[in-house]
Amino acid sequence: MIRETWALTVRELKHWYRAKIQIFMMLVQPIVWLGLFGQAFAFPLDPRLLNGAPDYMSYMSVGQLAIIALFTCMFVGMSLVWDRRFGFLNKLRASPIPRASIPISRVLATVVRAVVAAMLVLIIALLFAHIPGLKGLTITANFGVMEFLGILLILGLLATAFASIFVAIALSIKQQETLFAVINLVNLPLMFASAALFPVSSMPDWLQAVAKVNPLTLAVDGMRQLMFSGSTGIYSLGVDILGLLVFSVVFIILGIVVAMRALKEK
């Protein structure tokens, strides 16, 4: 199973990095977000609302890491739609390989893509801080290897959970229009009902309750504590990581069950 899963994962990654338009869009998207949205909304806020971030641009840049990971996972289903349309998915189902290797390989490839995309956002946000006239991400001076590994862990857990559930959804849905509808239904509520772009404490009470259990909030809350000295966070770093771990395990199990049932259907 490991060999088949690895072969399918490599196939997915080759399709990704050989598609130059996808690489181009992956670079342009964070530049547009950070260069337009970030600069336009870089208004002064009460420092007590920013979880230790020195300014709103730094606060929002960390949120962008989680948002990019979310968006990358959401569109994993498109390759499955094309594989089903061209008959490649049926060939895989008929081939003598473990069926679990099909969803697992998609999840692994998506996690790699999501983490790479998030790292590009991190690099671009850091570079913006050194361009005259622009605001960028300013992290604490004692940021080191352990903090960087902690960020990779958080992004990996977040991406694994979202990739698992969206692969399962894509395998269950037969029409690409339905898949687009599901993506559009989920992405904006997840993004705006979180601490990715705006402080949770400034939200209405009912929205705060939703935002505090949103996995995006757990991810950005943990990453901000790793990047900014003096950040108190909504939860402690351990609670953020534990919450993401529970979220990932639940979604992996749910994703495997749904994906295996979908692959058994004719």
Describe the model.
With 266 residues, the chain is mostly helical. 73% of the residues lie in helices and 0% in strands. The protein has helices at residues 2-18, 20-40, 56-74, 77-85, 88-94, 101-128, 145-172, 176-192, 205-211, 215-227, 237-264. Helix 3 (56-74) packs antiparallel against helix 6, helix 7 runs antiparallel to helix 10 and helix 7 (145-172) packs parallel to helix 11. The longest helix has 28 residues, at 101-128. 38% of the residues are buried. The mean pLDDT is 81.
Question: What does the secondary structure layout of this molecule look like, with pairings?
Answer:
Blueprint (H helix, E strand, L loop, with lengths): L1 H17 L1 H21 L15 H19 L2 H9 L2 H7 L6 H28 L16 H28 L3 H17 L12 H7 L3 H13 L9 H28 L2
Helix content: over 70%
Share of β-strand residues: under 5%
Q: Helix and strand string, N-terminal first?
A: HHHHHHHHHHH
Q: Mean pLDDT, nearest integer?
A: 81
State the assembly state of the protein chains: single chain
Q: Can you count the beta strands?
A: 0
Shape: globular
Briefly note the structural class of the backbone: mainly alpha
Radius of gyration, CA atoms, in whole angstroms: 19 Å
Low-pLDDT runs: none
Number of helices, counting only DSSP H or I runs of 4 residues or more: 11
For the record, give the distance between the C-alpha atoms at the N and C termini, rounded to a whole number.
23 Å
Q: Mind describing the biggest β-sheet? A: none
Quick structural gist:
This protein has 266 residues and is mainly α. The protein is 73% helix and 0% strand.
